[in-house]
Amino acid sequence: MRGVLVTSVVCLAIGIGMLFAFCHGNTGVQFAYPFSAASVHIDITTTGVPAVAGLILAVLGVFLLIIATVIALVGLRRSGSNAPIRHRESAFEE
């Protein structure tokens, strides 16, 4: 399960990183007294290979993250005992 989780986080980070690293866009924030007039505008445009590869990696990362969550939930469901594990006092005890 750890491998799936690590892979999902890496794919998600690289995918979103590619989308933002190669983007050209603008952002705007407007603060106003009636809070209904306040706004945030984010325009992200990524073109070419980074757009396709970033999107594929981000979707793959989200999918693997969902799979890792399902595996963790199944693992919690199967381990029914909550008792602590008893260890021996000494490594060479008989």
Ordered list of secondary-structure elements with their pairings:
Elements: H1 2-21, E1 26-30, E2 39-43, H2 49-78
Antiparallel strand pairs: 1-2
Helix pairs in contact: 1-2
Q: How would you describe the overall organization of this protein?
A:
This protein has 94 residues and is mainly alpha-helical. The protein has one domain (2-77). It contains two helices and two strands, in the order αββα. It has helices spanning 2-21, 49-78, and strands at residues 26-30, 39-43. The chain has a two-stranded antiparallel ribbon with strand order 1-2. Strand 1 and strand 2 form a beta hairpin. The protein is elongated and about 70 Å long. The two termini are 34 Å apart.
Features:
mainly alpha, 2 helices, elongated, two-stranded antiparallel ribbon, 53% helix, 94 residues
N/C terminus separation: 34 Å
Uncertain ranges: none
Roughly how much helix do the residues carry, as a percent range? 40-55%
Q: Main beta sheet, described? A: 2 strands, antiparallel
Strand percentage lies at 5-15%
Tally the helices. 2
Structural class: mainly alpha
Strands side by side in the biggest sheet? 1-2
Along the chain, the helix and strand elements come as HEEH
Approximate shape? elongated
What is the C-alpha radius of gyration, as a whole number of Å?
23 Å
Q: Average pLDDT across residues?
A: 86
Overall strand count? 2
Q: Please give the domain count.
A: 1
